[in-house]
Amino acid sequence: MRRKGRFVLAVAVVLATAFLLVRYVAFFPGDREKAPRRARGGIEEHVYGGLPEEGAVLIRNGYVLSYDADRRVPSWVAYHLRPDYVKTPGRRGGYARFRTDAEVEHPVRPGDYRGTGYHRGHLAPYFAMGGDRDGDGLYAADGDREDQETVFEVNRMSNIAPQHAAFNGSGGVWYGLETWVREEVVKKRGREAWVFAGCVFGPGEHEKIGPDGDIHVPPMFFKIVIVQGVSEPMVLAFLFPHQRVIHRSGKERIFPYFLVSVDVIEALTGLNFFRGLEGEEVLEKVDTWVNWKQFVHMHP
Ligand SMILES: [Ca+2]
Ligand SMILES: [Ca+2]
Q1: In Å, how far are 21, 190, 208 from 66, measured between CA atoms?
Q2: Do 19 and 114 lie in a common domain?
């Protein structure tokens, strides 16, 4: 009788462990990728919680993009960040060159922004496109063609939207958050993160630029950052007015003031993030200011 009891207990433990393992793997898509040395990429790697809308997307090694052909800017991009991915070659020579994206219809050319006063602002950032993604021990700087291509792809004009210099450039809030995620979250704390970044257009009028006056200037941008937490993922969601001047006094970090809930971004864009993901409701409703305060006090 005692032997039988022990057997039943052992079976229960095995089943419970298997159940937890399956749940964990399903909830943290990034952890599946840890062990094997193989090429990464695709929707599964970059888009946290599944595609936020129906329709075609462009799948790049380093990011996934939905293109707004009417407005000639990206609608949104998604990318996964790991400590290895921020090892990016310097932005010089071929790496600095913007490229026309032949994969989209009526593509914007790099010269189309000339004389408009706007920066060519990356939605998926340059400094997140590095790393030895095919696991062969070679990086772009070592002459790995595939890893070089991953970097080149980020400079395609389909990944670019018009941004004010004071927003996109050094000191700007877009630049600042991008840097914070890379330096603080990924490099310093060694965490993985998933990011959605996109344009927000309201129902009203907005500026249009370019040779044909049909490249739309977004009045707002959003960014959703999912940080790998201690036991569960932590979501930070930001909504930025597209500022013409740097809103900053001294060295004070201003991005916490732009924190919102994911619900706010869904309401403004019509996108539906984390569709069907366990805990979708909770992830979206929370005012992410709460997560921010928790994260900045968390070590490491
Ligand atoms: Ca490689
Ligand atoms: Ca949702």
Answers
A1: 33, 29, 20
A2: no
Q: How far is the CA of 163 from the centre of ligand 1 (A)?
A: 32
The predicted model scores a pTM of: 0.85
Answer yes or no: do 183 and 127 share one domain: yes
The set of residues, in sequence order, having a beta carbon less than 8 Å from that of 214 and lying 6+ positions away, is: 72, 208
Distance 145 CA to ligand 1 centre (A): 8
* Structural domain boundaries enclosing 43: 39-296
The Å distance, Cα 195 to ligand 2 centre, comes to 15
Domain count, the chain: 2
Q: Give 182-226 pLDDT, tens digit per residue.
A: 999 999 999 999 999 999 999 999 999 999 999 999 999 999 999
Considering the domain architecture, whether residues 57 and 13 belong to the same structural domain is answered as no
How many A from CA of 157 to the centre of ligand 2?
Answer: 28
Which ligand has its closest atom nearest to the C-alpha of 224?
2
In the reported structure, the alpha carbon of residue 265 is separated from the centroid of ligand 2 by a whole-number distance in angstroms of 10
Please, which residues bridge with residue 79 across strands? 195
How many Å apart are CA 95 and CA 150, to the nearest integer? 10
| 142 and 262 both lie in a single domain | yes
pLDDT of residue 35 exceeding 50 = no
- β-pairing verdict for 234-241 and 215-216: unpaired
Q: For residue 138, which ligand has an atom nearest its CA?
A: 1
DSSP, collapsed to helix, strand or coil, labels residue 30 as helix
Q: Do 89 and 212 lie in a common domain?
A: yes
Which range in 12-16, 99-103, 273-277, 281-285 is most confidently predicted, on average pLDDT? 99-103
Ligand with an atom nearest the CA of residue 141: 1
Ligand nearest to the CA of 264: 2
One domain for residues 286 and 185: yes
CATH number, domain at 213?
3.40.570.10
Non-local (6+) Cβ contacts of 208 within 8 A are 214, 215, 216, 217
Say whether both 69 and 144 belong to one domain: yes
Distance 284 CA to ligand 2 centre (A): 7
Q: Are residues 8 and 98 in the same domain?
A: no
